[in-house]
Every structure is written in structure tokens, then in C-alpha cells.
Amino acid sequence: MTTTGPARTTGAVAPVVAPMLELRGVRAAYDSIDVLHGIDLVVPAGQVIALLGPNGAGKTTTLKVASGLHPAAAGDVFIAGRRVNGARADELACRGLCLVPEGRGVFPNLTVRENLWVMTYAGRSRSEIEEAAYARFPVLAERRHQHAGTLSGGEQQMLAMARGLATDPALLILDELSMGLAPLVVEQLYGLVADVAAEGVSILVVEQFARVVLGVASRAAVMVAGHIVHEGLPAEIEATLSESYLGAGETEH
Amino acid sequence: MALLDIQEITVRFGGHTALSNVSLAAEPGEITGLIGPNGAGKTTLFNVVSGLQQPGEGQVLIDGTDVTRLRPSRRARLGLARTFQRLEMFTMLSVRENIRVAADIHKGWARTKVDPAAQVDQILERVGLSELADLRVTKLSTGQGRLVELGRALACEPKVLLLDEPASGQDESETERFAALLRELAAEGLAVVLVEHDVPLVMRECHRINVLDFGKLIASGTPDEIQSNAEVLEAYLGSPAATP
Amino acid sequence: METFLVYTFIGLTTAAIYAVIASGLVLTYTTTGVFNFAHGAIGMLAAFAYWQMHEAWHWPTLVAVLVDLLVLGPLLGLFLERVIMRGLGGTSEATKLVVSISLLVAMIGLANVLWNPDVGRTVYPFFNGRKIRLGPTALSYHQLITIIVAILVALGLRLLLTRSRLGVTMRAVVDDPALTQLNGAHPTRVAQFSWAIGCSLAALGGVLVVSSTVLNASGLALLIVNAYAAAIFGRLRSLPLTFVGAIILGLADGYLRGYLPQNDYLTALPLAAPAILLFIVLLAMPNRRLRTHVRTREYFPAPTVRGAVLFCIVVLLGGLMMATTMSTIDLPTYSQLFAIGIIALSLVPLVGFAGQISLCQLSFAGIGAVCMAHVGINGNPLGFVVAILVCGVVGALVALPALRLQGIYLALATAAFAVFLDQWVFHLPDFDVGPIHLGSTTVVPHIMHFSTFSLGSVNVSTVKLFGYNVITPTAQMVLATVLFVICFAIVCFIRRSRFGRRLLAMRDSEAACATFGLDLLGTRLSVFAMSAAMAGLGGALYGTQLTAVTPDRFNFVAGLPIFMMVVVGGAGFASAGLFAGVSLNALLPFMTTVFNSFGKYQLILTGGVGIGLGREPSGAAPQIATGFIALREDLPVIVSMLCLMVVTWAGRLINLYPNWPMLIALFVIFVGAVAIASRRRLVARGIARAAVTGAAAADVEEVPLEWVGVTVPWTPELLAKTEQVLGLGSVTYEAVGAATIRRGGAS
Q1: Is CATH 3.40.50.300 the right assignment for the domain spanning B1-79+158-239?
Q2: What is the ipTM for the molecules in this complex?
Q3: For C701, which DSSP code?
Q4: pLDDT (tens digit, 9 = 90+) per residue, C626-649?
Q5: Given CB atoms, is A233 within the 8 Å cutoff of chain B?
Q6: 20 to 30 A from A144, CA-CA: which of A72, A101, B73, C380?
């Protein structure tokens, strides 16, 4: 399974044993305010890594740095073994990295179909992308002429993921997939993440609702205040969670 | 009776319900906590209370007066003050001038005989910014910026104080100092409402805690009650099942 | 019926042109966030280019049109995007606005240089104006083509935006630029494309509009401004609504021309109608939310008392020097710099402190001049007072509806007011109002006689102050200087006052101010009224200097360079007022006397300076100030400099030498003073630094080693020394670090 991940990539990302994504000592700041204080994070090819932590810990910033939306103040970002510091987000997107951002990663005033068309920059044709998306999410085919803003929250999130998956990415980054969604829908979506992972795509998931994502992750890291404070197998991480989130570690024992 | 009384507030943005039927109260002399995951509607509730957002339904009472239809400035004159999650400092001005603006505005409507300059000096001392007083606020760290906002709010001599994530961006010692100041303010009879992600801080300092999730109030009680509440844990950590 | 049809066709043709232009504007605004005031000027340049190719070089119509639309328009768009607009991220609305207004001014200047404005140029309609019969009336081919083109543009844009990937991406950018980039779209390419299409549409509008008028650069650029009302009708977002707005505007224009009774009062009204409609449409905009903090790059610190006083002394001295040494022919020209300076100063509290925008400041000045003309008869100084009061009230009245607006909308509303005044009100003959009775109550008891420019020009008499008639050019210059210095001091005082801090606070966050209990409405009204009053005073003074004033002195376009120069000078600094006055009314006339042809390039240069603002958003004043910072802080040098200058001036007064040597000497003294002051500063700093480093070196020697790490931080030198003393040559940093960790683990 680990070898299929890199093999699926387009062009620039060569089939190597190197991790799909690696952050080494990454620091980042907004204006003069430091947000990340040296993050080391590895997403091995074909695995699902969960990045957890309370609000304001810097999870989203970490993803922004990884995907080229925000510059790293120090440290290096490697994708499939190549250093990509300073690459623009659209360049990385065309080379097989797909970030589904926090909130709804859709254009609300575009129809479902038009939302999929915007994805053609990575090289696939309109009809290929539409076919792939509708095959995975039949509900989207029914709604193809509807404006994305009028879809339900779960459908919007499906559209966002569909758009990402339709281009056959090597690395999928999901930010707060569950935000504002009912628990049942969240479970469905994560079932889907597990399916995608089984196909060999490397996935980095950021999530506040830790428990649901620990079910699908192979390893997990917990971030607090710009540092990674725990790293390990899901079961190990789960034990530390309520302390990291609620500071309730002692009372629970 | 409660100084701040929020009754059955509902807010909708388009089809999305940001707050549904939320009621809570803040008593004088107490620190009331308001926690919840991202997007639960905490800041929206503060905006409703301070008048920056009109609620679809429900009322807000300050010291027994219904202020639901009043402009933000009117509410301030009834003794409400707040800070902002995204800092709203006056970037052209120094720390001292930032607080002075608030003190001058307060003097204008409260018609007090207080000398605003002396009042500002006192506040600077109190929030611990005396040494940075003449620095332009853009030179400050976020944590120090939080103190400037708190200082400005205090310059209005409020009865109800809403603090939106005051500890984010502060380091440990700053938070410690800040917590002490909060206790002091509550002891003086202010009703303090605290939205904060630093849950340990909230657990330590608050007398009562309210938990928002998806715009609904899911729990309300003492810190001990909240920490052992299964629904709260689920709101924060998600449901435990879901292994596919 | 026949006339109705005729005017309907005229109206629809106008509508078609407005629609084409407005849709280009909306396209660039939504995808790039820059409202291009020069959009109309691009159409104007295209119209001239069309004339050049078609009428002067006799190219076939179709070739000329295609070159305009497919080559010149897109190239201009790409150029604008690359050179000017890309650097505007993170600047305030005022800065963005100034850059595009400067572009407008520069383009008018460029057209005047390339195509001598004194030569009349006409472009003949397509097919030489031939017509087709259409029932009882006839429609010219040109009208028909215009209407068809507009329909094609509408269809084409619809296809582009819903069927092509680039078009869909452009709409995606409006929704979420970052997400578009995550999808692999190149953000700059999208911006370039929308600039190219936008400019091409402006060019198309320009080509279509020319057949109906004689080519005139500023006239064309502004005629096209009318199309902005249509764009606002679509809230700068919706293209279909923009087309609807264009049709309403065009038909209103056609019918007003056809059916408005012809008399002195109403003939000019159709010219102002788009402005009035624009104002109405703006008022119908939904209520905005309170402004919260937006990060901008500008910074305007408060002036020190010493700095302000020094500035006042220098300006007074300069004014006196000019008054005593210049010829009576030059003096009236140069004294205007202070009148314009006061009008410019009036923008400082409004734009610089409060972050509001007004493009009608010169119109207030016009009202001030009219008050002076009618009240200040025979030199009655009451004219100044009335000018100040009337303008204050009018300012508040304009502000009241406009207060709900901000940024570009506020700019457009004030621009509409300026156009409304200069196209219609300033061209009204005298009229009487009253007595008015409402039921039994009398609202206006007497006949009130109103008069603006009485259909031409009005005379403003020179003012009599304390029995002294300020009639000689010298006296005028002194009066102007004194009034300017007073206004300057007022603005400095405001910046340091409670009111000024409040304005700066409101500029950053209205929401925060409201939560302190501030009455936002009252504060905004008072700054508008105050600023309008100061502009009125400037206008009144300007009037006494001109003696006979005409409305075109106060028109919308004439006011743009003042606004530009204030922002360029640094809108939050009172000195920007002098900067604007000097650069517009002293430097430009001076350069023109030196180089004869300079006048031709003046607009291009003014515009160019404004365009450069994008690079340094805080304006020129702080840069000039840092250049002289050493001088400003060095009182002995300043005093000696001023003394030397006064001596030089005295020499000129007793006719030892003429003006030129004096000017040169003054310049040399000034440059010398700056040089000496910087030298002294360097030396002083050098001594201070030497003292500091000396003390540090002494520390290393004197600190007892036991105290190192406690009173003095560890340095490699100290560590080496410690090791040497203790005989622990092998201890390294790593070992020390490891030891600490192990200890931490054991405890």
C-alpha cells in the first residue's frame, strides 16, 4: 500500500521512499506574532496522519505553510523528498497536493459543475473530473446545476472533497472536515477518508473532534500553542486528549 | 438579580443558525465562563450583547433595562464594556492614547469630575503597561495588546465586562497576572464574562461555566460539573465510536 | 409619438454605451478589488487613438476599431495591472483611490500632449451617419450598431463567465481567492485577464461614444464617468443589474433632453442628471456594518509642539520674503498657493485623521467664494465668517446622507455632489425664494434672493480688515500667509487634541469606539462640517485673490489634483497642506517660467507623482521630514540658519542684489544648515556609542567570575575565561546542556 501512493502522482513527484510530506523545524508568524515554534511533522507515503489540538494551537497555519499559502519563517518543507519552500500554492496544487480548507472549500456562487471545472488546472479535462466526482458522490450529479451555496453542509463538504479527489492527488490535506456538521455526517465523511486512504493516498487531517479521526489515523500528533506536545499511535494519544483539551487530566483518574 | 441577562437569543445568517435560543446570566462579583468549540457562536453572542449584531429573537437586559434595540453606544453608557477576539486597537496611537480615547469618551457621557489623564495612569499601572505607555500599540505583542483592550474597557468604568479570548497570545506569566486582575475586578463587584480557549484557566477562575456547541447551550454549571459532563466531552472531542 | 421614438432611440444608444463601459468597470472591480477611476479615461484615450487611425491616417473603420479593441485596450490593461495595480495590496482606500485618480489626471495630460487640445477633432459616425427608416422615424446605422454591440457584449460576457474556464475562475476569485489558488489557478493571470477585458470594454465604449461629441480629453473622460452610476446600480457586482441601470440612465438622459422645458434654470439639468441618479442609487445601498480594524501600511504620528511652531515661523518668514521681494505681477499667482493650501489642509482632518473621503472639497470652496462675492461687498470681512458658516452647514447636510457610505462609495457620493454643483447649481441664474407659507405658519418670511455665479462670473472685492483695505498684492500675500498659518495651527491642534485622537480611533475601529459609548454620527458630522468650513474659508480667500471668479475654477476635475497632492504629501500630516499648495501653485508656475514647454507636461507629472504613491503609502511628508530630522532637532543650527536667511533677505530689501542671487543664497544656506546639523548629529552619536562600548569592555574586566551568569549574561569569552581559571579545558556547551537535562530528570 505504501508504494502505490507515490506511484499515483503526476509529473514532478517521483516514486521515492521519502515521506510524502515532511516539515522540519518549521516556524511561522503573522506580522510579528509567532504562531509556530518549530514544527517537525512527517506524513509517510500512503498513511493517514491526524494533527489534533485545541483552538488557536496553530494547526491551520501548519497546513497553510505545507500547502504554500503562508511562508515559513524558518525550517524546511519537503514534499516527496523535494524541498518546496517558497513554492506558490497553485504550483503545488498542479503537482498533486490538495488542501480542502477549513469551513466549506467550495465557491458558493458557482454551480456544482462550475466548482468542478475550476479544478481543471491540474491537467484533467472537465468531463474526466465530472465523471470521477459523480461516480464517488452520486448525490452531486443530481445537484450539478445547483449553486454550491444552496447545498447542505455535508453535501458542500462532499463537493469540496470530490473536487480534491477528482484530480487524483498524491497528498490530501483536510482541515476541520467536521466543522458545523452533524455527527452522523461526520462519521460518513470519515468513512470516506478511510476508503481514500485504502487507495493509497497520503492524508494529513486536522481535526478538533479528536476521537472520530483517531479511528482512521495510523499516527497522530497533538499541537498546543505552536508546539507538538505529543506524538504517537492513536491509542496512546487518546489517553492524553482530555488533559490537552480541557485540562481535566487529574480529575478524570 | 443578574447584571447581564441574556434571554432566548436566536441569530440566523441566511439559512445557517448561529445561535438558537441561548439564555445565560452573569452575576455581579462573579466570573462567568463561556466555552465551546470553534464556530459554536461565542463571539456572535458577544456581538449580540454589545449591539454589533441584531438578534432574530430574544432579549438582552443590562441591570434590568431591555437594551435589545439600543445602539452599541447606548449600551456602553448603561455600563457594558468589551474586548475583541481580533484586536481592535487604534494603531496610530500609543498605549496611553488608546486608553485615553476611551477615558475621554467615558468622561463625555458620564459627566464625571475625574481627571482622565490621572485615570489613565492608574489603569496603566493596574494592567501593568506603565513602562510601555508611550509605545505605539503596533509594537506590542498580542498578549500586551489584550491588556490595552482591557485597559480601554476599564476606562469606561463598566458594570459588565465581556472579555473575548483575553488570554490568547499571552505567555504563562502574563496569564497568571491577568487571572489575578480578573479576580480583583470580580471582587469589586463587576460581572465578568469570559470567552476563552485556555480551558484550564476557565476551570480555575470561573464561578460558573456555560458551554456552547452548534449555537446551542449544552451545559451550564460549576467547573466540577462541567468537567464531568459527558455531553461537553463529546462536544470537544467528538463521539468515541466511528472506527470504520 | 415620433419624438418619443426619437428620444427613446437616443436614450437606448446612450444606455448601450454606458452598459459597455460599466460592465468593464464591474469586471475589474469584482475580480481585483480596485475601483478604477481612470476607466473612463481609458475610453477617452481609445477614442483619440481611433481618431488618429481612422481620420488622420485614413485606416479603414474596421481595422481601426479592431486595433483599438484587440491591441491597444488589452495592452493598456496588462500595463496597468503590472506596473500600477499589483503593488496596491494592503493600502487604504484613499491610497488606492488616489492612484487611480492620478491615472485619470495623467491620462488627460497625456492626451493633451499627444493631441493638441486647441485643434478641433470630430469623428464621423459609422457609415457616415446614414439612417434606416423605421416606421415613423429613422435610426442611424451608428445607433443601431451601438445597440447591437451592447447586446453582443452582454451575451459574450455571459458566455465567458459561465462557459469558459477562465471566466468561471474569475467568478471563483470573487468568492474565495485563496481557494482558487489551491485549485491551481494562477492568481495574477486571472487579474491580468480581467484588466485586459475591462480596458478593452472601456475602449469599445470610447469608440462608440465619440461620434456624438467633439473630441475633448477631460470632457470625454468625465462623460464616461456617468456610466459609473450604472455600475453602482449593480452594486459593483451584478452585471445584469448594471445593464438595467444603464438602460434607466440612458432613457432618463434621452427623455430629459427631449421633454425638459427649455429655460435658463433647467437647460443644464440633464448634464447633472447622472450625478443626481448616482447619489440616489448610493443612498439606496443597504446599511453597512460598523467598520472593524483593517490593517493598513500608513502611519501618521502627531506633530510636536516645537515642530509645529517652527513650521509656522518658517512659513510666515517665507510668506513675508515672497511678499517683499516678488514683483506685483508674480505675487497674485504665488499667493494662491496659500488659498489652495487651506483647501488642501481642510482634507487633513477628514482624510488623514478620520479616514473618510471627500472629492467635493473644491466645491465647498466654490460656495465659500460665492458667499464672499455676495456678502463681502466693499470688503466686508463678514464674508469670511458667512463663507465658513454656510460651508459648515452645507458640509453637514451633504455628510448626513453620505455618512452611511464609506470608501469608494463615499468617494463617488461626494464626486456626484461636486458634479451636481459644477454642472447645474453653479450655472443657475439668480433666483428668488419666498415668502413661503405652510398653512398658517410662515416658513420663510421674506423674499430671499439667491445667486451663485449669475451665469458667468462674479466679482469678489478685496477685504477690508480693521479699516485697512487689503488691496495691494503684497498685502494680499501677507493676509494669505497669516490665514494659512492659523489654519495650519488649528489642524495641528486638532491632531493633538481629544477630538483628533477620537478621529484616529474611529479610523481604525468604529466598532471599538461604539463600545466605549461614542456617538459615531455626531463625531462624523462634526469632522465633515469642520472640514467643509475650512475649505469655505480657503475658497473665500481664493475668491479675493482672483477678483473675478468663474464656476470652472471650482469644478470636479480641478479639485482632483488637490485631493491627490494631499494624500501624496501624507494625508495625516498638516504639512501636506503646504505640500499640495506649493506643488500645485508655486512649483508648477515656477517651472513653467523656467522651461516654456513645461506647462504641457504638468498634468502628466502631477499624475505620475500620484501614481508613485502606491510605493510609499504614508506620503512624501515623512520622507522629507526624515531628511531634515537632524536639522529639526538642532536648535542652535536652526536659529543661525534663520538669522542668516533674514540677513540675506535684508540685503535684498535694501537692493544690494536682485531676486535670483537671493534665492540661490537662501538655498545654499538651507543646504548648508542641513549638512552641518547631520554632521553634528553624527558626531554626537559617535561619542555616545564610544561611551557605551567603552563601558561594556570595562565590565568584562571588572565583573568577579562568581557573579557571571547572575549579574552579567554568559558570553563565549567569559566562559572561556572561567574554564581557564578553573582548569576545566574540556567542558563544552553540549556537556553543560546534557548535565542540566539529566539533573532535571533525576529530581
Answers
A1: yes
A2: 0.92
A3: H
A4: 666 777 778 888 889 899 999 999
A5: no
A6: A101
